[in-house]
Specification:
By secondary structure, the protein is an all-alpha fold. 72% of the residues lie in helices and 0% in strands. Among the domains are: 121 residues, Tetratricopeptide repeat domain (Serine Threonine Protein Phosphatase 5, Tetratricopeptide repeat), CATH 1.25.40.10; 126 residues, Leucine-rich Repeat Variant (Alpha Horseshoe), CATH 1.25.10; 145 residues, Leucine-rich Repeat Variant (Alpha Horseshoe); 135 residues, no CATH class. The relative contact order is 0.02.
């Protein structure tokens, strides 16, 4: 643009722009909308000044946006045109169209009235005006009813003297109203935000308070103006006060409301819209890429405009993480908010926090210990350390280059130096706890501190101290420090004797931690049966010690948690696995621990279940690899005989029967993607056995798998999707995936329809989608809406693999119930032609049956599909394959297709019956008559007869065929007439 300004005069730039406009007009007429859009955009950029002529370019581009169904952009261009040329009828009319498409009927009507006033002779606006007038009247009537409801509810909810039960019910109704667009607008206009803010200062009723906070969340959702107004009127401190509660429902409601505010003000909906497509950019079209870039630019501009509000929220959230008055549940919610908003494509808090003291505050939280209450201690929950550790892991992942990673490590170094310089007991305890938290959940950050000179020696010295709290935190730190094998080797040399000494402690909390330390060091050989760091039988003895802590009802939850963690390491040993799974009290105690859903027990419980079910990744060792390893004198891992599949299957059945899925469901609410992956692995291991899938559904497994399949590691998403597919194959989908969930599982399962996924997973996905397609039109509609889903299914119909092709055609059969699918098949494509060809498949009768069923459904709904049958040159041969088939199921579907085609009209019926097909229909009728007395044996044959008779009767009535008698009357002199060769006997009357 700068170069044009220097070279072209205003008149020259306008001339150039007009040429671009003319080119855009030509492209628009040819329906080449992408080209037209590009021409009009260049024309707008070419004009130097904001002159009246520029309004034409904006109007024209708005017309293109309307065709592309980009209504927000169309409205924006109309606004710009009207700024340059006020009251322009065309601009107003196009904005009216955009408003109507956006369901802003009142604004559309206002523009339409203005167009009519400005141009009374405009005939195009009259039907629009009439239609919008009716819509506005209907909306006003509805809003009047809603307005009365709002007023009545306001009178009840905000009247402290009213009946408590009525107020609670009215408050619940406010939530329902707030979820509706019209209801939300009315509530907001009637000042519900201010009323709620005032009410909550004096309201004591818990249910009403909870409902009011939820109303804020619904009002803020997907509406930037309301969200900003709520932040101004209610204020950020209001949400912090609401979050500061021990009531879990209240905390969740406040946290949800805060997230809705952030998402709306930052227009995160634009990011969500493109996230799925961005995962596979190779399939994105050029116009989609342009649109995505445009949306991203728009969002960045919106975030700049609203930076004040967004940054204020970030500072308030991070500041309050160390508030000494904040409840433990509230603090956990704040940490979860930081995790949610740290990604660069959400709020980018991870990078922004580098310019504040937020990371130091998070380290303060990470250094808190539930067992040790110092003077300025914060209230934390059992899960706080785990959540803050996972939070650090998320934040570190968002540092996309070495410079930012180093900045984050520097922030942690500052905290560590400050604590290490202070020789007090509190400082030593807190730095040890903080680094232990990092080692467990953000190992890269933790290891950056572990390697500091003297830190390991400090831990060993603390472990040998007589002070209980020093022994406690040091033993935990030593356990966390052995994550890497080289660290384990170093600590085995220095720390094993210390851990043995600590194990002799009379304090169970010290004893169990020392026990876990020994378990971890003893399991450093992993699953390799040939490596045994400890003496023979030591693992079993350690496992028995862990078991005693786990099953003892008198032991507190902390001891049982550590016992589970010890077993997590020991169950790498197959001997321990077998002994543990035969110990019913121990397994049930482990499952009950998991059912608490507490984040701090998550690692121990889930890891034990992964080890028992062998759900971890195993490297396949081929004979060639084995020979190469021997030649290079490398160690080759050896699998234990008790890890054979028969033993694994027995363990899986035992765990699932005892209710392990319930524990995994309770633990699935974590933000850790790695943990969610492990959960998906175990549930998928259960679902491998069709007898166990019902139990998985009963215990809530299908419900927990859906969010994992949508938001997890890539491996975790596939494991969850495969588990969902396996459930969908054998379980009634209406029970396994009730309500909206049956639509929600379509996207995750369809992710298995990719080339880089195994053929078995492809097959399971196709089978599951086929079952889901039988649920209702909403599910079928979702599959059609996701174009890559239906295209993938159709792609597998051409697959050479017999089972994949069969599953795809069977899935397609169920989709043919959908009117959307009928429309697709009516289009200019070969879908019907290919189905006809599949009906002639001589290799796979199941494919033939499914293809015939598809054609039967499609032809019953569309005469156009019936006509398209003849596009296949082999149609008659393929139909004869159906009608003369030995499988009566296939024959029945064939005669139904013929009947549907006859009903489609004379033009279709004549070529259909002008050949061998009519003779076969007669033969089928005769065969059924001969077999009439054997109805119970062949009931389907009688149905076939009925359909054949109906088809011939219909054809006879349309005069497509004639009876023998009719033909003789017409051709009395024709001696060559062969009875029955072309004309059927008089058909019986059809009831």
């Amino acid at each position: 643009m700068g170069r044009i300004e220097e070279v072209l005069s205003p008149q020259e730039s306008l001339n150039s722009a007009n040429k671009l406009k003319d080119a855009g007009n030509e492209a628009f007429k040819k329906e080449q909308y992408d080209d037209a859009l590009e021409c009009y955009t260049k024309a707008i950029e070419t004009v130097i000044d904001d002159i009246v002529e520029k309004a034409v370019f904006y109007k024209n581009r708005a017309a293109v946006y309307l065709k592309l169904e980009e209504y927000e952009y169309a409205k924006l261009d109309c606004d710009l045109a009207l700024e340059l040329s006020p009251n322009d009828p065309k601009a107003l009319f196009r904005r009216c169209q955009a408003y109507e498409a956006m369901d802003k009927i009142d604004l559309a009507y206002a523009d339409a009235k203005l167009v009519h006033n400005l141009d009374p002779k405009n005939k195009a606006i009259e039907p629009v005006l009439i239609r919008l007038h009716k819509a506005v009247q209907a909306k006003l009537a509805e809003m009047a009813k809603t307005s009365n409801k709002v007023k009545n509810m306001f009178d009840i909810v905000f009247n402290l003297e009213a009946d408590s039960e009525k107020r609670e019910k009215a408050a619940d109704n406010l939530i329902v109203l707030a979820r509706e667009r019209a209801g939300a607008e009315l509530l907001y206009k009637d000042g519900v935000v201010t009323k709620i803010a005032r009410l909550l200062k004096v309201e004591k009723d818990r249910k009403i308070r909870l409902s009011c906070v939820r109303v804020f969340g619904e009002l803020a959702k997907k509406d930037i103006d309301r969200a900003k107004a709520i932040m101004v009127e209610a204020g950020v401190p209001f949400f912090m006060d609401t979050l500061n509660s021990k009531d879990e429902e209240m905390v969740n409601a406040a946290s949800y409301a805060i997230q809705c505010l952030l998402d709306s003000i930052s227009r995160f909906d634009l990011v969500k819209q493109w996230n799925e497509k961005k995962k596979d950019q190779s399939k994105m079209k050029n116009d989609e890429r342009k649109q995505m870039r445009k949306d991203e630019e728009m969002r960045q501009e919106i975030m700049k405009q609203n930076a004040k509000e967004l940054n204020a929220m970030m500072h308030v959230v991070t500041y309050n993480t160390v508030s000494r008055t904040m409840t433990g549940k509230g603090r956990d919610a704040l940490l979860n908010l930081i995790m949610t908003n740290c990604p660069w494509d959400r709020m980018g808090w991870a990078e922004k926090m580098l310019k504040t003291d937020a990371y130091t505050r998070l380290m303060e939280v990470a250094s808190e210990l539930d067992h040790y209450k110092h003077e300025s201690a914060m209230e934390i929950t059992n899960s706080t350390n785990t959540i803050v550790g996972i939070c650090f892991g998320h934040l570190y992942e968002q540092m996309w280059d070495d410079e930012r990673r180093n900045l984050l490590i520097e922030k942690i170094d500052e905290f560590s130096k400050q604590k290490l310089m202070d020789p007090s007991l509190e400082s030593k305890v807190r730095i040890s706890t903080a680094i232990t938290t990092l080692l467990k959940h953000a190992p890269d950050l933790g290891n950056s501190q572990l390697t500091k000179e003297g830190f390991l020696q400090m831990l060993l010295a603390m472990a040998q101290s007589e002070e209980y709290i020093e022994q406690l935190v040091a033993s935990e730190a030593l356990i966390a420090a052995t994550a890497k094998k080289k660290d384990a080797t170093a600590i085995i040399n220095q720390g094993m004797e210390i851990l043995k000494t600590l194990y002799k402690s009379k304090n169970d909390h010290i004893k169990v931690r020392a026990l876990v330390g020994m378990c971890k060091l003893g399991s450093s050989g992993g699953h390799d049966a040939s490596i045994r760091p400890l003496a023979e039988g030591s693992s079993e003895k350690l496992a028995e010690a862990c078991r005693r802590f786990l099953v003892n009802p008198s032991k507190d939850r902390d001891l049982r948690k550590w016992a589970a963690e010890g077993l997590a390491f020991l169950t790498l040993d197959a001997d321990v696995k077998e002994k543990l799974v035969d110990d019913e009290p121990a397994v049930k105690a482990l499952i009950e621990l998991g059912k608490t859903g507490s984040q701090d027990v998550m690692y121990g419980v889930i890891t034990v279940l992964v080890n028992l079910t062998n759900s971890y990744d195993k490297q396949e060792i081929t004979e060639e690899m084995l020979q190469l390893a021997k030649f290079a004198k490398h160690h080759v891992p050896t699998e234990h005989e008790l890890d054979d599949q028969d033993f694994v299957d027995k363990r899986i059945y035992t765990l699932c029967t005892y209710g392990a899925t319930s524990a995994l469901v309770a633990l699935s609410k974590t933000e850790s993607k790695n943990m969610k992956e492990l959960i998906a692995r175990v549930i998928n291991a259960f679902c491998k056995h069709h007898e166990l899938r019902g139990l998985v559904v009963q215990q809530g497994g299908s419900k927990a798998l859906v969010p994992i399949a949508l938001n997890c590691t890539e491996k975790g998403q596939r494991e969850a999707a495969q588990a969902l597919a396996r459930i969908g194959i054998t379980q009634d989908p209406t029970i396994a995936f009730p309500g909206q969930r049956s639509c929600d599982v379509v996207r995750p399962i369809s992710k298995l329809l990719k080339e880089d996924v195994s053929a078995m997973q492809n097959f399971e996905a196709l089978m599951a989608l086929g079952n889901l397609a039988t649920v209702n039109e909403a599910v079928r509609g979702r599959m059609m809406k996701e174009t890559d889903v239906i295209m993938a299914i159709e792609g597998y119909m051409y697959e050479e693999h017999q089972m994949l092709r069969r599953a795809a055609v069977q899935c397609y059969l169920n989709l043919c119930q959908s009117p959307v699918q009928v429309k697709r098949c009516e289009g200019n494509n070969d879908r019907v032609k290919y189905l006809v060809l599949l009906c002639g498949d001589g290799d796979d009768m199941e494919v033939v049956k499914a293809a015939a069923g598809s054609l039967a459904m499609l032809s019953s709904q569309s005469s156009k599909v019936c006509s398209k049958v003849f596009e296949s040159k082999q149609w008659e041969e393929c139909f004869l394959n159906l009608l003369a088939n030995t499988d009566y199921e296939i024959t029945y579907r064939g005669v139904v297709i013929v009947d549907n085609m006859v009903l489609a009209g004379k033009e279709v019926a004549e070529p259909l019956l002008d050949g061998k097909i009519m003779n076969v229909l007669q033969a089928l009728i005769m065969k059924a008559k001969l077999d009439e007395g054997n109805y119970e044996k062949n009931p389907l044959l009688q149905k076939i007869r009925s359909v054949c008779e109906h088809a011939l009767n219909t054809a006879y009535e349309m005069k497509v065929i004639k009876t023998y008698v009719d033909a003789v009357k017409e051709d009395e002199d024709d001696e060559t007439l062969e009875p029955w060769s072309h004309h059927p006997a008089p058909p019986p009357a059809v009831k």
